[in-house]
Design goal:
The longest helix has about 35 residues. The protein has about 110 residues and is mainly α. Helices cover about 75% and strands about 0% of the residues. The chain contains five helices and no strands. Helix 2 runs antiparallel to helix 3. The chain has one domain.
Length: about 110
Amino acid sequence: MLLDRKRDPESAAAQWEQEMIDAYMEHRWAQILSPLCEQLDRWKAGERNYDDIVEAIRAARKADDAVQGILEKDHEWLVKVIQLEEDWFLPWLANHPPPPGYVLLKF
């Protein structure tokens, strides 16, 4: 990680990290909301009852709490945690190389 990110939030490193965080959060929200949307569609079609929907909403809220817990952490901690989720990070990294001089976690 470049140290100049702390001094200059407009640096290439800071912008790249924010792009990574935004993309990762989009990924996490899709993981939470897609199953809920599927259950709501099935409920509309008469394939699920009210109790099923309440349970799906509770599961989504629990997952939301986990995401909010991640977001409340320190920025540098969040950047590291995202990089450690290799199944998501490595494919993203292939299409979004870091700026020159940026040091990634070692895998």
